[in-house]
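S.,

Sequence below, as promised.
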Amino acid sequence: MPELSIIMPVLNEAQRIAATLQMLAPFRQRGAEVIVVDGGSEDQTPDIAYDYADRVLIAPRGRARQMNAGASVAQGYVLLFLHADTWLPPDADTLILHGPGRDSSVWGRFDVEIDGQHRLLPWVARMMNARSRATGIATGDQAMFMTREAFIQVGGFPDIALMEDIAMSKKLKEISPPLCLTARVLTSGRRWDEQGLWTTIFRMWRLRLAYYLGADPAELARRYGYKPRQDMLAEAQEEKPNEDQERSDEPSRPDWLFEKHHRNRRSE
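The prediction came back faster than expected:
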């Protein structure tokens, strides 16, 4: 059984998914499990991922749902949730599993470095890291990780369209403070480059303030430009708990989750 499961929610990432998964090859060689969860890509993302991941799942679009789907089949003691445009430091697995402070926290995140063109992006990254350390709130760009037990205890990521990382951090903080690793993940600065630095900062702070004031995450998602795909997965029946069914400590596998069985990568 792997100690670490790396879960990556993806959508239309054919141009970058191979490079990101190749970066994870050393972790797989050291025993980590890599699970890619596709949210209905319209490009070749799932097919490309098969050459580099242990499992490739298809789930309804939505980062929270995709991450929960990956966690439902993960085997690792620790779950690491990684964006497709984010690269881990080379010793990330060692830091998470055996690094200083590991025994006092059940979850954590990395500091972040932003790979982009604007000269102020290093300043943006420093502010993100300082804010996260001061508030105990992590964002998805910082590669959040947690024990499987903690994930189950808080019920996984809230099934909301946006701000699922902030909502998850709030729940995990009730169990323990985060382990704030100073090692840096490298995340893409494409949204700052494409939308403008100050425009992006203003939009994110406005959305975050609205969320803290009680705004509906679905409405915030519409403001952010999120448009869920209406397909057979999105229209799949909602899960309803069976009151007669015995509860399990293991997260259930949703009936809308699909896996493409091409081959067992670890057996090759």
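The two ends are 18 Å apart (CA to CA).

Coffee later?
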